[in-house]
Specification:
Aldehyde Dehydrogenase, Chain A, domain 1; seven-stranded mixed sheet; six-stranded mixed sheet; 22 strands
Length: about 500
């Protein structure tokens, strides 16, 4: 029985600093449940002084505890124990489901295992990747020696609170750093429980601290703090640009930024079974209610199969039913809040006014009270300058454009701002590889859409979709700075 009563869930209070909960004081932030719009709890925003406390404790703890200097294998052992606790903790799953857009069955079956495996992957990185011995003249020895930065500031989004936290904390901790993490003020609770489990697993208190608050106050103070030597952020392109500017202005600290996307799904007429392809397309733009930076929200389909594919998608879109996230039978995610639902409505309405045709959906589900559930929506006959094609909607809205030849399809797949992901659907390997080369995106999926459990494959975008990589060896190496050494003998 996975269903639970949201009124009986005890929420962790406020910040988590030095292994202790702090209820906080100052500006109060109300946290609502996306499923029904009712209050879930209240937070007190961390101001610059509270952020300074968390960062200073992290800086002292990572040095005095020996976390930065202990054998890498020991760090890996702690992270593996942490992953085991994450995988078995029922409270964590309920906190994630209650306060986010993630139905409890998805959290149990996908989010929790994915989060635990990400931590395990970086536990193995701890003693697998190191520096290098470099070729120099005979009477010298050149080396490249990695060192942790010290304190890394992490800022995670509301759409996948747990897995995004694992992407930030896993590589940073495995490399010997401390982390001060600010979760989204919309989904603050599960990350605190995750930090509690880290301390239970043996992570020294203070090496992972959680501060609550919004970006303007708490996030800005974290980015600007002089003891924070690196920033890792996942979120919107506009916010990422501000963080990059603030990081440069406050100490020239490096940043990893996974930002927005408006990803194409390019379908050629030799893509294969229509039902199978339609299922891929559907999952690509409806998973988590379309609230994913990698969502494949632009269908670009060759004319020969366009009618059949679109008809199948319309049929599939009509099968979705809303349900509260704490019900084990729910499969479809709500919008995170009223503001996001209003944004989806605004872009859809603007698209219609500029000539787009709504083929299915186009409005909120009826009879869901204050829950923010939006119908899967298809918009057709959309020109490239239509707002539904240009803007990241962050909802279950798919635009449909038709092309005749490969060159036209590739031209439609490009985007002036974003380059995060792309899907290519074809049985012709030559065509698939030409498309892979021709699309400017940090990740290209061929005959699939979406990430797998292969954590060795990094993710990150081009252009306005970000800088640097999450996941993979690259994320671990980005949590270290490299010192060049030359020894004469």
């Amino acid at each position: 029985m996975l269903s639970f009563d949201p009124e009986k869930i005890a929420l962790p209070a406020g910040h988590y600093i030095n292994g202790q909960h702090q209820a906080g004081e100052g500006s109060a932030l109300l946290v609502n449940r996306p499923s029904d719009g009712l209050p879930a709890g209240q937070l007190y925003e961390a101001d610059a002084q509270k952020v300074d406390e968390a960062v200073s404790i992290a800086d002292r703890s990572v040095r005095e505890s020996g976390w930065a200097s202990c054998p890498p294998r020991q760090r890996g052992a702690v992270l593996r124990r942490w992953a085991d606790l994450i995988a078995s903790d029922t409270q964590l799953a309920q906190l994630e489901s209650l306060g986010s857009t993630r139905p409890i069955s998805d959290v149990i079956n996908h989010e929790i295992p994915f989060t635990a495996e990400a931590i395990r992957f970086y536990a193995e990185c701890a003693d697998k990747y190191s520096g290098d011995v470099l070729p120099t003249r005979d009477a010298s020895l050149g080396m490249l020696v990695p060192e942790p930065y010290g304190v890394i500031g992490a800022i995670t989004p509301w759409n996948f609170p747990l897995s995004m936290a694992s992407w930030k904390c896993g590589p940073a901790l495995a490399a010997g750093n401390a982390v001060v993490l600010k979760p989204s003020e919309l989904t603050p609770f599960s990350t605190v429980r995750m930090a509690e489990l880290a301390v239970q697993a043996g992570l020294p208190a203070g090496v992972l601290n959680i501060v609550q608050g919004g970006g303007a106050v708490t996030g800005s103070a974290l980015v600007a703090h002089p003891l924070v030597r690196k920033i890792s952020f996942t979120g919107s392109t506009a916010t990422g640009a501000r963080i990059m500017s603030d990081a440069a202005f406050n100490g020239m600290k490096p940043v990893t930024l996974e930002l927005g996307g408006k990803s194409p799904q390019l379908v050629f007429d030799d893509a294969g079974d229509i039902d199978e392809v339609a299922g891929r397309i559907l999952r690509g733009f409806t998973a988590n209610g379309g609230q994913a930076c990698v969502a494949g929200t632009r269908l670009i389909v060759q004319r020969g199969i366009a009618d059949a594919l679109v008809s199948k998608l319309i049929e599939l879109c009509q099968c979705f039913r809303p349900g509260v996230t704490w019900d084990e039978n729910s499969r479809y995610a709500p919008m995170i809040d009223a503001r996001q639902a209003a944004k989806v409505a605004s872009v859809v309405n603007s698209a219609r006014q500029q000539g787009a045709e709504v083929l299915v959906g186009g409005e909120r589900f009826a009879d869901t009270g204050e829950g923010y559930f939006w119908q899967p929506t298809l918009l057709s006959t959309v020109s490239n300058d239509n707002p539904a094609v240009q803007e990241e909607i962050f909802g279950p809205v798919l635009t449909v454009q038709i092309f005749d030849d490969e060159a036209e399809g590739l031209a439609l797949a490009s985007h002036p701002t974003y380059g995060l992901c792309a899907g290519v659907h074809t049985k012709n390997i030559d065509r698939a590889l030409r498309a892979m080369r021709g699309i400017a995106a940090g990740t290209v999926w061929i005959n699939r859409y979406g990430r797998s459990g292969d954590f060795i494959i990094p993710t990150g975008g081009f252009h306005g979709s970000g800088i640097g990589k999450d996941l993979g060896r690259q994320a671990f190496e980005a949590c270290q700075r490299y010192k060049s050494v030359l020894i004469d003998f």
